[in-house]
């Protein structure tokens, strides 16, 4: 028996990419899985493939999160693990449309807040529960070309840290999953920035899921499928100007590629 046998797990954004890989890996490890995605057909397809239950819908809005949690409890009895995996990564800077910023806050941050608000009372009463936040290495570093994504992923990491610091002594396990490039549809949409920063070291979603399950089984907070991110994070913290100079050079390389395209 492993840490996930018989556990009731919810995975948002599980119709594709990392979410689908998490659902698949959890089911293979013996968990009972609820598959959530805005893409109803994709959610049903993944759920059928893993022997889980599809609950399509919006995992970001107040109403959508409430409906998902209620449906998952009905299907599973109890929710032992909630994977807040759904995310959006539009491009843009301060000029991005306010609606783009609002969407990023809703999906990348407030979805986690809204889910934990509903999950924590039961978990605290039982003295156990597990919350996985798919953050991205952008939450530890930055993502050139997308201020909304970078800012909200930093906030997602901050919220996961806060949850862990506040509730870990009461049996709540929190994990921040921070991969760099992953071969998904989101990577395909990142343009030249993605080609420079992410594509060269991109890994498969299944590798991310494997790292996530290993880290959760060991109760590790920070999950780095790309181990080199730890070195980048340390450089950012200890030599910030040098790190920013390096990021600026990467931005210049991106600019040059875009100009020559």
Automatic annotation (TrEMBL):
Record family assignment: Belongs to the short-chain dehydrogenases/reductases (SDR) family.
Provide this UniProt record's keywords sorted from A to Z: Oxidoreductase
Recorded protein name is: SDR family oxidoreductase
Taxonomic lineage:
Bacteria, Bacillati, Actinomycetota, Actinomycetes, Kitasatosporales
Q: Which InterPro entries match?
A: NAD(P)-bd_dom_sf, Sc_DH/Rdtase_CS, SDR_fam
